[in-house]
Amino acid sequence: MLKRFFRVETDLFTIGILFEVILFSIIYFGIGYFYNKTDPFLIKQEINFLLIFLLTLTLFYGLAIGLLIIFLFAVFMYYYYHPFPIYYFLENLVVVLIAGEFNFFYKKSFKRLKEENKYIESKINQLRNAFYSLKLSHDQLEKSYILKPVSLRAILYDIKNLTLQNEKEAAEEVMKIIVKLFDVKQALFLKDNQILAYIGEKFSINQDDEMIKTAIEEKRAVYIAENINKEELGEEYLAVIPAINMENEITGLFIIKEMPFLNFNKENIMVISIIISLFADFLTYKKSVEKYRDISLCEPEFMYEVDRLTKLQKDFGIETHLVMFKYYEKFNIDKEEFFEFIENNIRTVDMVCKQGDIAIVLLPFVPLSGAKAFQERMKEKLYQELNIELFYSKIIKLEEKNINKIWKY
């Protein structure tokens, strides 16, 4: 309880917030002093104005600010009031503590919901990117690869695997795709302010360019064709596309300097943005995969989601569970059909990792009761549709302390 009451966030003690609080306090004291010099804190009025003031500050800024102001006022009250109104002070102090508790739970709930929405939004972005990559596979790319027919999804899958080994070579492959699709003549990809890959000749980057600033600040592609006032933004680059991963973080910048006029349009810029965003996801996947490289054989996407959901559980207590199913040779279907059946009966946000005879289903934001319901539903479906009686299934809570043990079952 005390830890929660005296939890102080560093951002509360910025100069701006302190200035606001002190200014409000001076205004309150000034009004009270002007109204009644013998009762500047208005504690003798029928309405407890001081309580309303303290309650407002505590609910808005948190317990730390509420305690700071009430004890600061207590020092001045000791000078203006004789005897010191100890019961009045304690009454207000208790209300401040209660308001601080409410503020704590409100912020905690707000952050929790914010992180849940952020995760769901990232999954939507992932599905959007998958949709566009599929669309491209059947449209532009198939036309470009007449002599060597291959889908964009297959190429991106190879690039994803290459990213785990050498991200520079992977970036160069992404550049080749963009050149073949849109005939870009000169461009480069920046990561950590360093050139990771480029098309044509290298060129210097002006960090103060308005297009670069706008792309970073607004996290969107900025291109010269959309700007009516070209002189204001400058014409040094044709387009600046931020590499935004599923967590809405910028992992790099793709800057186009030269591109054929006929290919330079809004639709193509959007498609390039999708490709760059997919590559940004690959770069982010790499961190998670390297973290669990020695303990897991799962796909990068699966480990990436495990890493994210583990952090959400640790920071906000958002529960996630895994359900394991084991295949036996005595089943009347083969293993691939068994795994495919499981994959076809999960939600869009759920994921499956297959290792040997084990299928591990990741259920984001699902509590223990939901995991048990899913387990029973799968058992029932397997029995009704495939006449399989499941002999082994286990539910595991996703936590940082047991993440290394999951792959040993």
TrEMBL record:
Keywords: Membrane, Transmembrane, Transmembrane helix. The keyword Transmembrane helix applies. It comes from the Bacteria. The chain crosses the membrane at residues 12-35, 47-80, 86-106. The keyword Transmembrane applies. InterPro entries: GAF-like_dom_sf (IPR029016), PelD_GGDEF_sf (IPR038367). This is PelD GGDEF domain-containing protein. It comes from Venenivibrio stagnispumantis. The lineage of its organism: Bacteria, Pseudomonadati, Aquificota, Aquificia, Aquificales.
